[in-house]
Amino acid sequence: MADSAVALEDVASVDIMTELLRRFKCSSKPDKRLILIGPPGSGKGTQSPMIKDDYCLCHLATGDMLRAAVAAKTPLGIKAKEAMDKGELVSDDLVVGIIDEAMKKTSCQKGFILDGFPRTVVQAQKLDEMLEKQGTKIDKVLNFAIDDSILEERITGRWIHPSSGRTYHTKFAPPKVPGLDDVTGEPLIQRRDDTPAVLKSRLEAFHRQTEPVIHYYGSKGILANLPAEKPPKEVTSEVQKVLSS
């Protein structure tokens, strides 16, 4: 047994029962291999944990996986680190290889949610090739469709109290005194990524790179457009409709 493994007798009975119940519930769930696509602020981050739990999937965020592979010093992680140290982009083949590795984990047995990849049509094609070799394919691509102007209102109105992490929104959840934290009265700040200029360039990059990916999956008949401007609960029910069909 590996050093990091926990002896079963040391695990509380309630934890064992919870895990057994989870596995029992998961055994009846259909396998799902999903991709989430959407611009920053479209609500992917709100919906993906719920989809993950409902369908017993693993969540594969490419940035996190790259960091984990580098930290674990896997052969692909070492190659990725070499590229990053030179200031180069990690190649598509490497990223697909890291996804391939991550998919073999027990937590990915029922399938996965891919978030942040593919960003280009070439990446989508490489992903399809890798899955084909395994005899699987992407089941559904959830496109969190939302108008740029709504995103701008959502994101540029966000303010944060740095030391506590409390968040506010000038329109949807304003502080009692503009610009000040309700509890401490300290000044609120805006994240660098939440300014109109940064958002504009991120949205431009998203449309330029990822719109073709949306068309690519649309032509395969596996794309589902979600009304991401709706409140989160309504988006959740739309997601459930799409995934149960």
From TrEMBL:
An example molecular function term from Gene Ontology annotations: AMP kinase activity
Catalytic activity, as annotated: AMP + ATP = 2 ADP
Pfam families xref list: ADK, ADK_lid
GO CC terms: cytoplasm; mitochondrion
E.C. no: 2.7.4.3
InterPro entries: Adenyl_kin_sub, Adenylat/UMP-CMP_kin, Adenylat_kinase_CS, Adenylate_kinase_lid-dom, P-loop_NTPase
Assembly and binders: Monomer.
Originating gene: LOC107916900
Protein name: adenylate kinase
Keyword match Nucleotide-binding: yes
Role summary: Catalyzes the reversible transfer of the terminal phosphate group between ATP and AMP. Plays an important role in cellular energy homeostasis and in adenine nucleotide metabolism.
Transferase is among the record's keywords: yes
The protein's enzyme class: transferase
Family label: Belongs to the adenylate kinase family.
Keywords: Kinase, Nucleotide-binding, Transferase
CDD domains in UniProt: ADK
Residue ranges constituting the Adenylate kinase active site lid domain according to the UniProt record: 158-193
